[in-house]
């Protein structure tokens, strides 16, 4: 009998020796952690209660502050105590990441807060990451899962059933105002009755299931919730982090460039998680069997056999886990080759997201961005040179993002976006954050008492700025240099093109951004020109010239469930150009439009429903004037199903910038701006983008028609762009439109075809007095507009052709072109920023305008 026990004891001791090491280690960790529980619990509780709404950086600052307070009050803790260390269960975290939770620290902390918090989570989720994660977790749960919106007709009934039967509920697209009828659920105001726990919902007692869970998400990246919302709910910031974005982009790039590698990686991640879960289960089972055994363990043959079998299985699984981890490392090593492309895509995404800080209408979804990156990768021609392939991918994706985003930006923001791209990528000259802050904001705070202004050509404010700039390391000694040799910088100050003038002494070795800091102080009127040069240097010349407005391209990017949104500026009206485009697409008879306003909601809904069925186009104009109906519009857009809606259906929307415009529509729609572009060159390019060869040859006198049409286009661009000079350009700011030019074009064709001689006086009278002049009210402006038109539309233009110049520089004239391509080629050769002489103004007219633009 003793020998039998010895025989049983030997394998049991050998089998459990590994477990003994693990148990001893865990016991020691538990003892150590037990002593540190107070400090860790305080930090974790604080993060759950207060930290959820903050970004990763703010959370880190909070933790540092709290740990400092713990140290000060001598509460036991470790220096690196945090939420994940104290409450993070590795098995749960692994399960969450398989379900779609990003692996970055912020997202994992959010998962822990959702799991541990007593209040229901309200997630700020502009990229739909939390939405996807909760849906995957909900579908895998045993309780059932419902997705709904506050605008659903049967919303309250769905909530009643979910509370009663213990379902998980996800409420999507929550606005800044929450439904007060849900207050009892938010506060979990349970009442005990004879049947158990229940809650009063809409004056009705509903049984409360302990399995019920509520989740809420909002697509608004910067919601303004009142304090009481933070008291009732756990607000969580699920905005994507750079680490999480780079990981997602790497997965996307590898799935397209090396699909078999990414597929293998995904399978390994899932299998690894399953095996580790099984391993943990087996380890727990061994502990459970040992703890539940009674009497002498060596006499329990069934227990010993079960333990041995569990141990063998655990050893096999452990071996598989180690092999899988080794394989995963090899795959990760192969995937790292594509990291530069993923990193570039991540930088671009955050550059695009930051645009919402300057205009709330600039909202872009993660899905839209991923689709654009995927399209860009597929467009790049194949090559055997791997390094060249990576560079080609990065370059093409960068320009594709720039091109698509620029279509939805106002003119004043396009160069800002290009400049921001250059700063983010920082390919050649990394930028110091202090220097960038100075460039953007200038000197802040009061300057310390110091040397008096040594110059007569700098204002005291400019001198104070130079002294403030001298405090930055790269500019040390700048104020001393001015004190001794201010005349050296006066050469830059007096130069016509100050942004291209060499700086004196060692200051010429500064980086472009550093030079712009000095330029900001002494010649702020050339700051935009310097920014343009910076963009051309860092990214290339093509990032300086944004694409012209192209309705056909935007239409091509849309689907029958993707709204097309015109972001309006003062005086812009896309209705006429859209109607013309609809006729060109054979949709003229199926095109309906309505101007939104009070009482127009029902009509708009009916138009949309009819167009969905018969395949029409609907334009809802001035959405900003129907703020109360925007929730209904969002509901209509959310309800569009690609399979059920006619494939020809398109919903067109126009709106001035408005905070009431639904974020979800902005993120998923195709956005466009239709304002006149800034600059003579850009204006002409846009006009000729809508003129084809058939139009140029449509008159009986094609040569005269082409030249005079160019003259009218040039006139239109001039009168538009003169507005930037303020009172120097026009005494009153007039809103000239493309329709004015279209009328002139039609009249030009009619009169050329009707008369043997060109009726210059008639054309000038109609253009200057009626079509454009009808808007002009100031007497001096009336005389001016007629003089401007006369200088372009005259017999010299027809007789001399390109020899007849529109300005003293000789740069501007009507080219002797016979087709649209010829005119466009000439227009593209024009300077991006014309001198005032092109408008008939003195050089000094540019100074005030450039200073305002630069600031």
From TrEMBL:
The keyword Cytoplasm appears for this protein: yes
MF terms in GO: ATP binding; dynein intermediate chain binding; dynein light intermediate chain binding; minus-end-directed microtubule motor activity
Protein name: Putative dynein heavy chain 2
Lineage, uppermost ranks: Eukaryota, Sar, Alveolata, Apicomplexa, Conoidasida
InterPro entries referenced in this protein's UniProt entry, alphabetically: AAA_9, AAA_lid_11, AAA_lid_11_sf, DHC, Dynein_heavy_D6_P-loop, P-loop_NTPase
Single biological process term from Gene Ontology: microtubule-based movement
Domain Dynein heavy chain AAA lid residues, every copy: 705-845
Stretches assigned to coiled coil: 258-327
GO cellular component terms given for this protein: axoneme; dynein complex; microtubule
Subcellular location: Cytoplasm, Cytoskeleton, Cilium axoneme
Entry keyword set: ATP-binding, Cell projection, Cilium, Coiled coil, Cytoplasm, Cytoskeleton, Dynein, Microtubule, Motor protein, Nucleotide-binding, Repeat
Location of the Dynein heavy chain ATP-binding dynein motor region domain: 94-317
Any Pfam family hit: Dynein_heavy
Residue stretches making up the Dynein heavy chain region D6 P-loop domain: 560-673
